[in-house]
Amino acid sequence: MTGWILAVLGLFVVQTFLPSAMRARSGEADQIAYLRSNRDARPPAPVMAARMERALRNLMEALPVFLPLALLAEIKGIEDGWALTGAAVFFFARLAYVPAYGSGIPLLRSAVWTVGHAGLVMMVAGILG
Fold first, then answer.
1. Inter-CA distances, 18 with 11, 52, 62, 70, 98, Å
2. Alpha-carbon gap, residue 100 to 110, rounded angstroms
3. Are 65 and 116 in contact (CB under 8 A)?
4. How does residue 113 score in pLDDT terms, banded at 50, 70 and 90?
5. Which residues, 6+ apart, have CB-to-CB distance to 95 below 8 Å?
6. d(CA 75, CA 83)
7. What is the DSSP code string of the chain?
8. Measured between alpha carbons, how far is 88 from 95 in angstroms, rounded to an integer?
9. Cα–Cα distance, 34 to 45 (Å, whole number)
């Protein structure tokens, strides 16, 4: 389980850079000035930067569920079964969530989010079972 915990935390670290990277990628003068400033005056985010900010916020909402479940599985010594599979499903769904959100394809983001949360349910089943 340690590997999945580290993978999810690594994904979190990468996602923290994406909103700023998308602001920089826009090339807009006000975005570049904002990134170089003390960030007191925040201009409206370009579409992709706003999507990456929302995707990051969503991961921050899911981490307080994933991490305790993963730590419980680790403490219980669970090395296989539903808990481990659920952690893998959660990670890969969260990995797919970023491009799904960025693409703007209707319902794709929601479908990927649902798969990720199914992974959390699998983790609960593996811990309780």
1. 11, 6, 18, 25, 9
2. 9
3. no
4. very high
5. 11
6. 12
7. -HHHHHHHHHHHHHHHHHHHHHHHHH--HHHHHHHHS-SSSPPPPPHHHHHHHHHHHHHHHHHHHHHHHHHHHHHTT--SSHHHHHHHHHHHHHHHHHHHHHHT-TTHHHHHHHHHHHHHHHHHHHHH-
8. 10
9. 10
User: Which residue is listed with tokens 């994933």?
Assistant: 66
Question: Tokens 């680790």 sit at which residue?
Answer: 74
| Owner of token pair 């089943």 | 125
| Segment 10-19, tens digit of pLDDT | 999 999 999 9
Q: Which amino acid is at 97?
A: Y
| Residue showing tokens 């904002």 | 34
From residue 122, alpha-carbon distances to 41, 47, 70, 79 in Å are 43, 34, 11, 14
**pTM exceeding the 0.90 threshold for the entire prediction:** yes
